[in-house]
Amino acid sequence: MAEILLYGHADSGHACKVALALALAGVPHRTVGVDIWADPGTRPAAFLAASPFAEVPLLILDGGAYVQSGAILLELATRFGVLGAESAQGLRRGREILMWEANRIGMCLPQLIEARRVGGAGFPPGAVDWLRMRYDTDKARFAALLGDAPFLHGDAPGIGDCAVWGYAQWLPKAGVTPNVALSGWLDRMRALPAMQSPGDFFPDG
Ligand SMILES: N[C@@H](CCC(=O)N[C@@H](CS)C(=O)NCC(=O)O)C(=O)O
């Protein structure tokens, strides 16, 4: 198999989701840093040619270009039979959590982080309160999804855990707090042997 390349950046929770999945699955790969704060036109030509919105993550796998973090997670899980895709039930669980994450907690957390980064500039009045209100619902739903299990996929983490980790790793940057379920899960995720900091996942990005 040709070398697997992951284009990403340490400030991108979407890219961290994929980096974590590759690490948990033990899939050898190389990361390529893309400066997400720079003018998109300055990004590597090979990246611009393959990523339609000039966004990370971009995964090059067997000559194919894969975008959208959730879709990449599903590709990795099904191709390698890992992180939930070992069974039909685990894959279904992964799909359900990925859809929930993209619509809910994975929508409000990045926006809350961005609102703090820019001091609220460009956010209409009430937007941050609305995002915080959504997060309160999301963390309650997270607890319901987790139940008594250590991970969202049960005894071991799967693609759903990778997806939620992407931005839940930065709750303080979003100015919000976890509930007991989220806090315990975050501790268990941090303790995974394959876990790395965003800067270690993307040393040149
Ligand atoms: N829905 C996409 C979101 C990707 C995304 O928003 N990427 C951001 C970094 S988190 C990016 O590349 N921003 C750079 C830009 O838009 O110029 C996914 O799930 O992969």
TrEMBL record:
GO terms for molecular function: transferase activity. Keywords: Transferase. It comes from the Bacteria. Residues 2-84 form the GST N-terminal domain. PANTHER family: GLUTATHIONE S-TRANSFERASE GSTA, GLUTATHIONE S-TRANSFERASE-RELATED. This is Glutathione S-transferase. It comes from Gemmobacter megaterium. The lineage of its organism: Bacteria, Pseudomonadati, Pseudomonadota, Alphaproteobacteria, Rhodobacterales.
